[in-house]
Every structure is written in C-alpha cells, then in structure tokens.
C-alpha cells in the first residue's frame, strides 16, 4: 500500500538494531517468499513463538516494520480462515517509490524476523449483499483475493475482475488459476483489446450489488466515476496512496489555522498551516501512531467530541467519520475541534 518515510538509501542492508525504536506488536518470521512476476513477491509471515496470529476478516492490512525504521502497510491476501496460522502479503516493487517495496524485495528473505502491527480493516465485506463485484487493478487485487476466499466459504455470489498490463504483470496468477473459486474470476489485459472495462462491469452488475475496488489512481478514478449513481453504502474501496487533491477548497483548507482541544488533558493547541494535527499532537508529547500520513491506513484515527472536521482521508466510512478523525491529514471547518484525548 502506502509509502511513509522519505527516500531511503538501500545500497547498504539496513539492520534492525539501527532502528530508532523497536515498534510493532508482533514478532514474526518470514517463512516463505514466492516470486510471482519480475516485480511481485509474496511473503508468508508466522509468529516466532508458535502462538496463533490474531484472526482477521478479508480486507485487513498490517503494518510491516522493516529494518532501518521504514514502516509500510500491506493488505493480507491469504484465505482469512487461515489467518491465525499465517498472514500472507504480496508486494510490488516500485522502483520510483520511496524505498519500502524495494527494501522488501532486496532484503527480506525466508527466515527474516520482523515486527508487524496488529491487523486493521477499513475495507470490509458487506455480508447482506445479493452480489459482490470485486474489481482489482494491478497489485490492488491483493485484498480482493482474500475477499474471494471469504465469499466462496460463505457461498455468497461474487465476481472477481482483475485488470493487469499484460499476462506477465498479473499479480497472484497461480492463486487465481488454482483457487476453488477460479470460475468466478475474469482477467483483462491492457494489451488484449476487450470491450469489457471496470465501468461496463459496474453498469451490468446485478441489482443491489456491492462494488469493492483497489488499484492505482487512474483505475480508482475510473471505477469511482462508474459507481457515482450507486448509494455510498454499496461502494467500498481502498487506495494505495492518497488521491491527488486538485481543488482550490482543499488548498484553502491546508492553509487554515485552527485549534484542537484535548478534552481529557484540558489542553488547547494551535494547528498552523503546513502542519498536521498529528504533528502538533506529537510535538506536544501526545503519542499518535502514524504510518501512512496520507489518510489511507487508519493508524491515526482519533475520536472527536465536537467541531466539524474537514475529513481528508479515504479509509473511513461516513458512519466512522461521524465519530473519528484521521489526524494525519484532516483539517477543521470549525475554529475549534475537540478531540477525546
Ligand atoms: S497515518 Fe494512516 S490514516 Fe493517518
């Protein structure tokens, strides 16, 4: 999913002992690494103490703490019924990224011991849907594969449509070929002309379907536009990185100064232009967990009591936004925002 820190020199293998702080909740060993394409590896993670991992539902992701202090969030792509035994993630190497995926590919081998966070899930299946349309662009297929396992186990009707540049770029192709639900899978390649697009699949979905999608920015924009007439509760998505903000209102909001009140600490803090609420809180000694700093991972969600947040995240539902704010990226429409801290 998302890059977090600034560019990292990977010419020397980072050492876990160089990490400023040992973070993460669970210590795991990488027990299997599988190369799927020139750019995509999958990694199986198991606890080193042999205890079960926390169970989690399809759509969950974990933060992986890499040697050298990098932290990256990756969606779980395995069968959710097996998550207490092992987590599985798939990572696409982004050579122009900021180092996390390159570090995974260059340094993480079978036997490596790493720390991971507890799983979080902001991309859940709706269990009352008459049909589930899963649309994955590129490596965005990973959480949808986990959803396909879960839906198959439930006997729920679904279609998994995967869009990739070409056959040689297809993520998790062996899983898609061999899964017991492979009859529900459609694969579309950019280099093979086809009348089918994510938009045509949305337009032709059975009545009442729920759509779930994950992929690169252009793919996300295309599918969100295609779903515009659908009720929000039937549209579920997860971004790799924050969508580009182009509108003037967003730029104005970034420039606004406002105040946060920490209700339980009885403290007031100014949030200036150019600083996030999270940065202001951390500067005042308030611990806030931030991983993506782009409103996509959910690590910084904080309950609020009053005020009108200007939500900038893409990870919360409207119901969640009524009670929580992503302090890494939110601003405030009201002069004061009162947090339950
Ligand atoms: S740090 Fe990821 S949502 Fe705020």
UniProtKB/TrEMBL annotation:
* InterPro entries listed in its UniProt record: 2Fe-2S_ferredoxin-like_sf, 2Fe-2S_ferredoxin-type, 2Fe2S_fd_BS, Beta-grasp_dom_sf, FAD-bd_FR_type, FNR_nucleotide-bd, MRET, Riboflavin_synthase-like_b-brl
The protein's matches in SUPFAM superfamilies, at most eight in alphabetical order, are given as: 2Fe-2S ferredoxin-like, Ferredoxin reductase-like, C-terminal NADP-linked domain, Riboflavin synthase domain-like
Its Enzyme Commission number?
1.14.13.82
* Alphabetically ordered keywords of this record: 2Fe-2S, Flavoprotein, Iron, Iron-sulfur, Metal-binding, Oxidoreductase
The 2Fe-2S ferredoxin-type domain sits at 258-341
Q: Can you give the residue ranges of the FAD-binding FR-type domain?
A: 23-126
At the top level, the lineage of the source is: Bacteria
Q: Which PROSITE patterns does this one have?
A: 2FE2S_FER_1, 2FE2S_FER_2, FAD_FR
Q: Which GO terms describe its molecular function?
A: vanillate monooxygenase activity
Report if keyword Iron is assigned: yes
Report whether Protein biosynthesis shows up as a keyword of the record. no
PANTHER family hit by this protein? CARNITINE MONOOXYGENASE REDUCTASE SUBUNIT (PTHR47354:SF1), NADH OXIDOREDUCTASE HCR (PTHR47354)
Its protein name is Vanillate O-demethylase ferredoxin subunit
Recorded source organism is: Hydrogenophaga laconesensis
């Amino acid at each position: 999913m998302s890059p977090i820190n600034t560019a990292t020199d990977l010419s020397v293998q980072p050492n876990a002992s160089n990490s400023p702080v040992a973070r993460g909740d669970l210590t795991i060993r990488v027990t299997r690494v599988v190369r799927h394409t020139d750019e995509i590896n999958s990694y199986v993670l198991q606890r080193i103490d042999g205890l079960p991992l926390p169970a989690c539902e399809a759509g969950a992701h974990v933060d992986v703490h890499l040697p050298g202090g990098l932290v990256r969030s990756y969606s779980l792509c395995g069968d959710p019924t097996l998550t207490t035994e092992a987590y599985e993630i798939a990572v696409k190497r982004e050579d122009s990224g900021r180092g996390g995926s390159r570090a995974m590919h260059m340094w993480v081998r079978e036997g490596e011991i790493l720390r991971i966070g507890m799983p979080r899930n902001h991309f859940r299946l709706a269990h009352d849907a008459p049909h589930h349309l899963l649309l994955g662009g590129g490596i965005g297929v990973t959480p949808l594969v986990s959803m396909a396992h879960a839906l198959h186990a439930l006997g729920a009707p679904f279609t998994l449509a995967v869009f990739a540049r070409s056959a040689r770029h297809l993520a998790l192709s062996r899983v898609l070929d061999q899964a017991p639900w492979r009859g529900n899978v459609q694969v579309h390649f950019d280099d093979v002309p086809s009348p089918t697009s994510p938009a045509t699949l949305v337009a032709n979905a059975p009545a009442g379907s729920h759509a779930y999608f994950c992929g690169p920015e252009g793919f996300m924009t295309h599918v969100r536009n295609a779903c515009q007439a659908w009720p929000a509760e039937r549209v579920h998505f997860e971004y790799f990185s924050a969508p580009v903000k182009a509108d003037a209102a967003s730029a104005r909001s970034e420039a606004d100064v406002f105040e946060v009140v920490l209700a339980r600490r009885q403290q007031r803090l100014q949030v200036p232009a150019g600083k996030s609420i999270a940065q202001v809180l951390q500067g005042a000694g308030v611990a806030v967990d931030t991983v993506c700093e782009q409103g996509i991972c959910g690590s910084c969600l904080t309950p609020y009591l009053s005020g009108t947040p200007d939500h900038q995240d893409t990870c919360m539902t409207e119901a969640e936004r009524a009670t929580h704010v992503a302090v890494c990226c939110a601003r405030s429409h009201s002069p004061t925002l009162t947090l339950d801290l």
